[in-house]
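Sample pair:
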Amino acid sequence: MLQNTCRQSVDGESLMYFATNIEEIQNAMNAKAPRPIREVILEFYPDCTIDRNNRAHAPYDGYVCEFTCKTFRGGEYLPFEPNDDDVWNGKAGSKPRLLWVFNEGEVYSLEGTKTQIQAGADIAKNQAAEFDKNSNHVGELSKRSEFNLRLMSVFTNYDGMYGPEHVHMFRDENNNSVIYKGTKKIECKYGDTVTMIATVKSHWTSKTDGHKATYINRPKVI
């Protein structure tokens, strides 16, 4: 389920991905949608009987399970432990997982299982990588400039030379990638926009695929 959460902060510590095509992400997630548990059980045991609690039973005495090579009596329970992300048993589950994406100036949340979230995230990462091949560097090298940046995610390396090192992934107004890497952690929630003064440290371009990013340092939120 797609929800527009524009002007709201991303909950918790979830990552947020930059996306250029929401429909492609939704299609990838739909392709990984869980199925009714009875359908999955019948793939394991085509001739079994299934009770109202979705438990599989041997159809006759002497039934041999090809997965365990054990023999069962008629009506005896058959072992079945499905992946919770692949099946839907019709019961209320825990708090749903969310995939947060930023697209055309708005923040969206997409609900799904762990498998669905991973499928959607993979597509979003590919979209961002393709976009960044044709994006621009921002600011003048070695000069302090003002930036309006949306925080996409933060990764922390606790084994940095001078203590924990935080890598902040931002997007500017034109969705160009801006990165700050340092011991200072910017107090900003994912999805929020922050205005800061910072020095342009470097303009980086990947030699592999042309991906572009601007690195800044000495940020000061204003």
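The longest strand covers residues 144-157.
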